[in-house]
Amino acid sequence: MYGLIGKMTAKAGERSALAALLLAGLTGMPGCLSYVVAEDPADPDVLWITEAWESQDAHRASLSLPSVQAAIAKGRPLIAGMETVAETRPIGGHGLG
């Protein structure tokens, strides 16, 4: 398995709109085991994205899907900053099989 934990900072006042875009395109991503979008309770502009994939290749392939490309195009104007906090290797957990 392959995992990512990312921190995304929305432009001021745009966090809800950005979260809605991220959550709207979650279907039809082959190899995606888990994709969680969470609000940071201490910062009104920050979202945390936690992902688990069957493989790093499955994650890479998802970036070329039309639905993902459309979400990126719509979301880009709402984003003030992005960073990958960690790459992980999930070994199991609820919902991961």
Strand order, sheet with most strands? 2-3-1-4
Radius of gyration: 13 Å
Q: Supply the number of structural domains.
A: 1
**Helicity range:** 25-40%
Q: Could you name the CATH topology?
A: Alpha-Beta Plaits
Residue stretches low in confidence (pLDDT < 50, at least 5 long) are none
The largest sheet is:
4 strands, antiparallel
How do the strands and helices of this protein lay out in sequence?
Layout: E1 2-10, H1 15-24, E2 32-39, E3 46-53, H2 56-62, H3 66-75, E4 79-88
Antiparallel strand pairs: 1-3, 1-4, 2-3
Could you walk me through the main structural features you see in this protein, from its secondary elements to its overall organization?
The protein is 28% helix and 36% strand. The chain has helices spanning 15-24, 56-62, 66-75, and strands at 2-10, 32-39, 46-53, 79-88. The protein has 97 residues and is an alpha+beta fold. The chain has one domain: Alpha-Beta Plaits (2-Layer Sandwich). It is built from three helices and four strands, in the order E-H-E-E-H-H-E.
